Amino acid sequence: MGQWIIICVGFCILVVVVLPSVIVRGCSFNIYPLTEQLSSFDQTVKVFIVASNQLQDMPIEEYIKGVVAAEMPASFGVEALRAQAIAARTFTLRRMVAAGGPGCTAHSGADICTDHRHCQAWVSPVYSRKIQDAVNSTKGLVATYQGGLIDACYHAASGGATDNSEEVWSSAVPYLKGVSTEFEAKEPDFLKEVSFAMDELEKQLEVSLKERKSTTYKVAGKDVHVISEERMDKPIEVLEASKAGRVKEIRIGDKVFSGYALRTLLGLPSTKMTYRIADNKVYITTTGYGHGVGMSQYGANAMADSGKNYVEILKHYYQGIEVVDYVNAQVK
After folding, report:
1. What single-letter DSSP state applies at residue 7?
2. Which among 19, 148, 224, 269 counts the fewest CB atoms within 10 Å?
3. Which residues pair with residue 2 across a beta bridge?
4. What stretches of 170-321 adopt beta strand conformation (E)?
5. Structural domain contains residue 222
6. What local confidence, expressed as pLDDT, does residue 185 receive?
7. Pair (105, 74) in one structural domain
8. Which domain holds residue 236?
9. CA 307 from centroid of its chain's CA atoms
10. DSSP SS3 for 263
11. 1 belongs to a structural domain
12. Quick one: how far is CA 203 from the chain centroid?
């Protein structure tokens, strides 16, 4: 999963580098069948604007333009922007009450909210002609699996490969399978190293990196046992990792964390990480940005640059799906 709109140079740097990459949503992974309401609902979406704490009705296609502007820079290839528009529209319709979805679980009465950590990022209508054209040219198109709207999860950059949904979350989803994104190599890999002093890590994670050790000494011919508290020989241990290299479970001191929980607690860009310990510090290096499931936005842009169209991009990242018009889609 960010704000990608140019308002001023400083804000642009913040938006392009940070916000669009923190797309971590609570995907429910049920297959929502399309309903007859899809061909008759009024094509408006109830959006909870977090910044203003207000619920607002918006024409769905105008809302999607705001999402694309927030989630992907206008400098990306048009086919990548089209793929993003379809993913965002599918994500939205899947949650809309009028389309048979559950609505936004965080804000009563809303179909969706503008908190990128829960739903999708969105910015008010200040976007480029290129983004408008990308959305208009895909109007009404959605991604479906066996006739049902998919949960179109996406993230900024996978760092070489995406993961199966069950590797990151708990549920195996047939269309969310790990795929190679080696073509991302020419794009930023979001390689980042952060460091934590041992004491700082203990405090932030509420763990102990020490253990009690018993040492025996000979004193006047007798054994004397001394109990001391010392730093663990192995304070950190990766217990389980995905095929793509993302940490699924890790022990830090006397506690075990999921990779997702550790990423959240330490504010890490990704769970695809390695670590080293030196000079009483822990150095963590992460690759990629985001949860690593579904469409990689930088990967989509690389595919667009190589001549792939939006359908090819979407079918690469969402296995076995079809791109259809929601009005004419199969009704179950």
Report:
1. S
2. 224
3. none
4. 192-197, 210-219, 222-231, 236-241, 247-252, 255-258, 273-278, 281-286, 295-296
5. yes
6. 60
7. yes
8. 192-286
9. 25
10. helix
11. no
12. 27
> Is 32 in a helix, a strand, or coil?
strand
224-259 in b/e burial notation, b at 16+ Cβ within 10 A?
A: eeeeeeeebeebbeeeebbebbbbbebbbbeeebbb
Output the CA–CA distances (angstroms, integers) from residue 181 to 152, 201, 316, in the order listed.
Answer: 17, 33, 10
In a domain, residue 220? The reply is yes
Cβ–Cβ < 8 Å for 194, 281: no
**Hey, what are 173's tokens?**
């989803």
pLDDT at 22 over 80: no
Of 93-102, 106-115, 199-208, least confident by mean pLDDT is 93-102
3-class DSSP assignment, residue 161: strand
| Buried-state track 42-71, b at ≥16 Cβ within 10 A, e below 16 | eebbbbbbbeeeebeebebbebbbbbbbbb
Cβ neighbours for 294, distance < 8 A, ≥ 6 positions apart: 87, 152, 153, 154, 155, 162, 176, 317, 318
Map residue 46 onto helix, strand or coil. Answer: strand
- Tell me how many domains the chain contains: 2
Q: Is 164 in the same domain as 203?
A: no
| C-alpha separations of 292 from 102, 162, 180, 244, 323 in Å | 24, 5, 11, 9, 22
CB atoms within 10 A of CB 288: 32
What's the longest Cα–Cα distance across the chain? 93
Helices (H), 5-161: 9-17, 60-71, 78-95, 129-136
Residues in the chain: 332
Contact of 309 with 323, CB cutoff 8 Å? no
Surface-to-core class of residue 182, CB atoms within 10 Å of its CB (0-12 exposed, 13-18 middle, 19+ buried)? exposed
Residue 186 confidence (pLDDT): 57
